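Fold it.
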Amino acid sequence: MDNSVCQAYEEEIQALEEEIRLLTEKYEDIRQESMFFSDEEIQKSIESLQRETQGETKGHESPSDLIAQLKSLEADLSFLTAFTGFQFTSHSKKTVEKTRSRTVQKHRLSGKCHSLSFQLEFQLLEMQDNEKVSAVVSDLSIIMESGEDPDLSKFVSSTEESGSLLTFFRSLSAYAEWYEHRRRTFLHFK
């Protein structure tokens, strides 16, 4: 057999092995999450999903209704982006641990606020006591290009220590808005 054909087969085999590895990891994550649900809960979810899909196939919502709903959601998203200045570009979530009363998830989030890019990585611990659910953010890591602004670096460091996402988003929104004003002003004078 020709070496180039063998090489092509080897590359295809490696690609398939990588795909199998990724699918196995995904399967294990899903299996791990589903282990914590009872057969009754799983059955209720399946029945609920079947009712939803049957409702969709019966045509309860016409394509024009769905298009109108999509346009409405796009308008809402556009308004929120213009109002807050935040535009999220990616988000990933991985469940690290799940029990009946406790869930630990690792989140990665990236986006822009006006012209400032940011990336966040944090763990979210959700605990459930009876009817009460509480969430705690830990291991917060913020990546931003602070450039020559030491105040932004101090802000990022203190926010990472406190682990307050609300403080981060509120402060970044105000800072980024004024950062844009300053940038435009300096461009005007150049």
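The chain has five helices and four strands.
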